[in-house]
Specification:
about 120 residues, mainly beta, five-stranded antiparallel β-sheet, 9 strands, four-stranded antiparallel β-sheet
Length: about 120
Amino acid sequence: MSMEVFPELYELLDFFESEPEITDRDVPWFYNRLTYRTTRDCDKIYCAIEPGYGQIVLIWEKSGELVASLNFEYVNGLKIIAEKGTEKMVASFHESAELLDFELQLKPSIHIKWGNQSNG
């Protein structure tokens, strides 16, 4: 399942403040794996995005220690939101997954927010 909503590549570049590593230069970027790496003080973020397959892998380390390792599937959309001095990447999921949006904030500090929901 591919992502129906996806930011412009320059928005991801601004958000991560790094150029992506691309797995296969002969494949269109939408069907490729875009890997971003960024550092904020003692925090390191690794984020691999595969828009054509609706997948995201996120690894967050602080001072060399693992804080979070997340593997998302069924990602329906991805957008970058900048407001009130914060920047967030928001991933939404297919309705059938019953998952709330995932938020990764990099500025002014790193935070993640995510959960699931019940229809009951």
